[in-house]
């Protein structure tokens, strides 16, 4: 280091401090010109006026009650039957119109209420156009200037009924556009003849807006309830499907233990055959070696399959699989839980195939668990017998002697789903259902293959 080196030689380096990097500035929202935003909103409102709702069925057409589906038609006919003659009389007597013109205007202003049951937006266009024509005609009518103008009282009543039909059917933008068109028409007539208007445009504008707001809110609430119901149905179906898949995976894991045991026996027998049997030819030794290798490979594939079937966080079961030999312990545990149960086992568990043995135990276990959860204290009888080549499992419980709260509020959630899957696995049948006295019955018939005996071979 030379004498000239150091902070004194480079004062800019000695005095300069490194400042931390400034945080990035948030992205700027692009500014939309006011004229462009107004034009876009006007286009949306215009689209709402010319595009009706996709559903063109009648109002309340999706109701499950037939009489409720007829209510809109009855109300529409009643409104037309009441307003049509009143409108004709008012236009004729109060405003001095001729009978033909009054009848034509009255029909155009009231008859579209029938169309409003299925197509309220199209009905509004007809009524709105007829109202504008009627307002122009009333300006030249010989009636007194003190009468209601530009909207007659019958027209206001029919228009509000039409707003109800619009509110329960059309979209928000359509309702806003209809409301603004109503106010704009009243404003135009107010500017044309301000000395004749008596406030009816303002009244119709405010009241129609309130009706549209109320009916639109009711429609949104109904749509939200419908979507919630549909979502609950989908969730219930998904829960059922997930339960079915979980039960199938559990059964597959249990079957893996059985098959793995048999494959292990095959491997040991094939490997030890050359040492147990003397004088085997070389071809037979190679065949036994191939059998052992194939068994080991199949066993490895099954273990990989079990890894796929096992849920995340589920440890392997180390206890041996239960069977009919443990039914007595299961019934005794049920008795300790407060359910008086008895067992009748009329079959030797040793002659029952392992898959059928396990399925019979699991079906009995789930049936007794359901008794504990749903009918605590009910007398229960468990019967296992053989009819021909079938194993019959019967679990019957009567009604509880006295009302009691369930001793177990949670379960596996599999229930009858697991029973059906196990019966389907063995090719059997399952019959479940309530009894006339208030109890419940579970009957499973499981085919079992009878082992071949020397007598049968002879």
From TrEMBL:
Enzyme class label: transferase
Coiled coil: none
GO cellular component terms, semicolon-separated: membrane
Enzyme Commission number(s) of this protein: 2.7.13.3
Phosphoprotein as UniProt keyword: yes
Limits of the Histidine kinase/HSP90-like ATPase domain: 359-449
Pfam families: HATPase_c, HisKA_3
Ranges where the Signal transduction histidine kinase subgroup 3 dimerisation and phosphoacceptor domain occurs: 247-312
Catalytic reaction(s) noted: ATP + protein L-histidine = ADP + protein N-phospho-L-histidine
Name of the molecule in the record: histidine kinase
Upper taxonomic lineage: Bacteria, Bacillati, Actinomycetota, Actinomycetes, Kitasatosporales
